[in-house]
Amino acid sequence: MRLKVEFTTEPFDLDEAPAHALVAREVIEAAELDAVDVGPFGNTAQGGADVVLTAVDALLRKALEAGATRVSLQVNVVEEEEA
User: Residues 28, 3: contact at Cβ < 8 Å?
Assistant: First the structure.
């Protein structure tokens, strides 16, 4: 099964990326995901279910430890041809 995760961390800072946002991006970029798109107001990544779920666990733990007060995420099952 393939999954797509979309996430944001808060609070936002329009002048400089906060520590929790940087940590979240590092976690996602370090995971062995097939597709990663990091942006200023949202991030997406795709991969196998085990890899995505492991990355989401690390993302939540590390972003909260780094000061995030809210993490919004959505996880969807994607068709193989969307990869």
Answer: no
